[in-house]
Amino acid sequence: MAQDEATTKRVAASLKRVFVGDSTFRGDGLRRIWHRGENTTDVVSWVDRQGQIMRQEFTFGGLVVRWERGRGVVSGAETGGGEHSMPAARTIEDWGDNSELFSAAFTLLCQVPQSDFYLRHLMHHLADLVGEEPPRDRDTTQGEVTMTHILNSRSIEQRWGLDEKEEPESHFALWLVVAVLGITLFIGAFWYVVTH
């Protein structure tokens, strides 16, 4: 058991973003964000032009946890002819609900020391599924900030009652200064034209 925990920590620590083709939108209108770790552990996120994550696949040990917008989280098995230079993008078997696999994926993602927006997105979906809370001490999201991230942050704040402190801002004085300056410039320009 201790060896499994050590392996999980080692793999989690090795999971990093791979900046290969991540700015290219494919024919389906999505771009791929790829994270790779030891033991051919991959998290692949497909993002649309608005920054919405449409699908994510987490492959490790030949097993797959897939999240799809509108479908949720399912499990399956990886296919491919032994080619490990690129992440798998399909599954051979769709098992549906596999709580043990979901829990293992969640545990691994919780231990990634430099979790970014994409990894946390998947972690939050798995957290809801397994009934656990993601670690609060690492809730600072790094990486790209998209509208999805902003909405997710707001939903977490509402869920836990973390209200943003909003201080009412009065821009009246600023507008007054701008208006006075504009009127002064207009009168000065008019005076200059009339006198010359």
Task: Tell me about this structure.
With 196 residues, the chain is α+β, with helices and mostly antiparallel strands. The protein has helices at residues 2-14, 99-110, 117-130, 147-160, 172-195; strands spanning 16-18, 31-37, 41-47, 53-60, 63-68, 72-78, 91-96. Helix content is 39%, strand content 22%. It has a seven-stranded antiparallel β-sheet with strand order 1-2-3-4-5-6-7. The longest helix is centred in the C-terminal third of the chain and has 24 residues, at 172-195.
Residues in helix, %: 25-40%
Round the Cα radius of gyration to an integer and report it: 25 Å
Q: What gap, in angstroms, lies between the N and C termini?
A: 92 Å
- What structural category arises from helix and sheet content? alpha+beta
Number of strands: 7
Beta-strand content: 15-25%
What is the number of helical segments per DSSP (H or I, 4+ residues)?
A: 5
Mean pLDDT comes to 78
Largest sheet: 7 strands, antiparallel
- Uncertain regions: pLDDT < 50 for 5+ in a row? 162-168
**Strand order within the widest beta sheet:** 1-2-3-4-5-6-7
Q: In sequence order, what are the helices and strands, one letter per element?
A: HEEEEEEEHHHH
Q: What sort of overall outline do the alpha carbons produce when their principal axes are compared?
A: elongated
